């Protein structure tokens, strides 16, 4: 993404204090972006922001007010918002057998609501600037399935959100896409890393996903679902076509 004489492009990254979010902040900084690092963990957000010469914002993406505040602080600091990477996520806090409403809501609050609230908070600023780009971090689990049932459910919903909302935002010059990584070597996978590797499964480095996010930010298309896995470049996935039934089909 290029900008005019007003300055370098500005991106806000949720879940930016570690893993994919931190790798994305570093990579985009290296490409000339100014970054706002948003995370619930203040010290981690501050460390990454200082490394990148950016802004740290402590926020809970499950809070609509926190999302609004994070966007407003970013614009107050940098004078603009050109893109947002809605990346914050947690592993499912419960499954079918240990289900509780509160643990379920804790999962959805971050993995689904946090993206919806971030999208809603970013849109006015992007429209004010004449457009921009939104990238949602999804998951391969949102295209297939996972033993982590409610995490996968949220990621499936994000794919539906992107495909449904993107056409409605095109008139405003706003692109909306999702990047769906496979297994990524982040702290969240640390407890199961040995078992995954024992099965011969490859774990992508977070920077591979960050590179994919950079690719999507540079791409002019919208409403796309991109996959990225260890050793494989980012690639868009074709949307399935399911024609609606019509009266013509019922004619003898």
From TrEMBL:
CDD domains reported in the protein's UniProt record: SDR_c (cd05233)
Keywords: Oxidoreductase
Annotated region described as Disordered, given as residue ranges: 232-252
Domain of life: Bacteria
Transmembrane segments: none
Listed Pfam families: adh_short_C2
Keyword Lipid biosynthesis applies: no
Signal sequence segment: none
Keyword ATP-binding among record annotations: no
SUPFAM superfamilies the UniProt entry points to: NAD(P)-binding Rossmann-fold domains
InterPro entries in the cross-refs: NAD(P)-bd_dom_sf (IPR036291), SDR_fam (IPR002347)
Family: Belongs to the short-chain dehydrogenases/reductases (SDR) family.
Record PANTHER family: 5-KETO-D-GLUCONATE 5-REDUCTASE, ALCOHOL DEHYDROGENASE, PUTATIVE (AFU_ORTHOLOGUE AFUA_3G03445)-RELATED
Stated name of the protein: SDR family oxidoreductase
